């Protein structure tokens, strides 16, 4: 996908909050520049549960403006599918946000989207956020992004089985059917990139409501053995576009008792089933993203024990050798 300026600002302009702060060691962090970048590898499994399988890393490239539950669920759904239907074993997953130069409608800064992804994945034990794509000074094609992951993971070495055998790790693209339907459209993708993505890496495609990709799959038949189509067991169509539309119309994306106000978070340990992660909603309003404004109705924000503010050092890049 794409990339922004070569360096992020040293001074953090954004406020942070999260439902679960988690432990600093387990959280992803954000690099201040490409020169200080380090690959986030801490959440990757180091031993295969089933030594007969091939270790697999799933990579989702996208805008994530903002990240939604569907973005998070697609990894879990794919992991279930992989376990039941393929010879692979998922050892980790990555969200790779595109940078600001992508020039897509509704795209907030790369830095803001990286931080929202980090907030959304905080506490997840195998899903990480990688900001290499966003930190690059120019557009990075998806094929090159997958190469980046392949190169970084190879540096870590293969995965050991219980018997001591070391197996190389496979990298694959994870995407929604709406993206994959563009693969078959002439002129949208470079033919060499398509060959590289689908021929070398392969793609797991998640069903999306209203998207019929039968014709697209027929046009991609030459790579059929490297494409896996996954049905959603419970359909979720709450997209980033939907969330931005709700925010533009000043509609609630909360499921709290007072859904009109992001400040009105019940002082309880019971989780709230908002349309997107509550930590991301808080971040959007606290930083007035997508032209939203904090409410002026006098509500004060109640932060329960499960909704501790995320410390600055917990909203920086991802683990590994973790530069901050």
Write a concise keyword list for the protein shown above.
two-stranded antiparallel ribbon, 13% strand, single chain, 8 strands, alpha/beta
Task: Characterise the protein shown here.
With 324 residues, this protein is an alpha/beta fold. Helix content is 27%, strand content 13%. It has 9 helices and 8 strands. The protein has helices at 69-85, 110-121, 132-135, 142-155, 177-180, 191-201, 214-219, 240-248, 278-286; strands spanning 54-62, 88-97, 127-129, 159-160, 166-167, 170-176, 203-206, 227-230. The strands form 2 sheets. The protein has a 6-stranded parallel sheet with strand order 3-2-1-6-7-8, with helices on both faces. Strands 4-5 form a two-stranded antiparallel ribbon. α2 (110-121) links the parallel β2 and β3 (127-129). α2 (110-121) runs antiparallel to α9 (278-286). It is globular, with a radius of gyration of 20 Å. Mean pLDDT is 79; it is low at 1-11, 16-25, 257-272 and 297-324.
């Amino acid at each position: 996908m794409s990339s922004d300026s070569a360096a992020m600002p040293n001074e953090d302009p954004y406020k942070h909050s999260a439902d679960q702060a988690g432990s600093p060691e387990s959280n992803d962090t954000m690099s201040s520049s490409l020169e200080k970048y380090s690959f986030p590898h801490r959440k990757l499994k180091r031993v295969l549960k089933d030594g007969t399988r091939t270790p697999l890393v799933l990579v989702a490239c996208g805008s994530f403006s903002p990240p939604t539950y569907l973005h998070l669920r697609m990894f879990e759904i794919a992991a279930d599918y992989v376990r039941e239907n393929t010879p692979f074993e998922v050892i980790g997953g990555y969200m790779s946000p595109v940078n600001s130069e992508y020039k897509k409608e509704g795209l907030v800064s790369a830095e803001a989207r990286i931080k929202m992804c980090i907030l959304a994945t905080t506490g997840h034990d195998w899903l990480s956020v990688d900001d290499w794509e966003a930190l690059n000074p120019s557009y990075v094609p998806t094929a090159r992004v997958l190469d980046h992951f392949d190169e970084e993971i190879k540096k870590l070495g293969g995965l050991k089985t219980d018997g001591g055998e070391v197996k190389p790790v496979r990298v694959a693209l994870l995407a929604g059917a709406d993206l994959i339907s563009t693969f078959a459209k002439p002129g949208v993708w470079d033919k060499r990139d398509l060959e590289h993505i689908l021929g070398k890496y392969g793609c797991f495609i998640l069903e999306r409501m209203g998207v019929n990709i039968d014709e697209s799959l027929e046009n991609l038949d030459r790579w059929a053995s490297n494409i896996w189509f996954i049905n959603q067991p419970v359909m979720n169509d709450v997209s980033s576009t939907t969330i931005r539309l709700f925010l533009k119309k000043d509609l609630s994306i909360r499921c709290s008792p007072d859904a009109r106000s992001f400040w009105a978070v019940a002082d309880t340990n019971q989780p709230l089933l908002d349309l997107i992660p509550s930590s991301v909603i808080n971040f959007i309003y606290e930083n007035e993203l997508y032209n939203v404004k904090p409410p002026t109705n006098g509500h004060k924000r109640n932060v329960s024990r499960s909704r501790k503010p995320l410390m600055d050092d917990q909203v920086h890049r991802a683990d590994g050798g973790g530069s901050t």
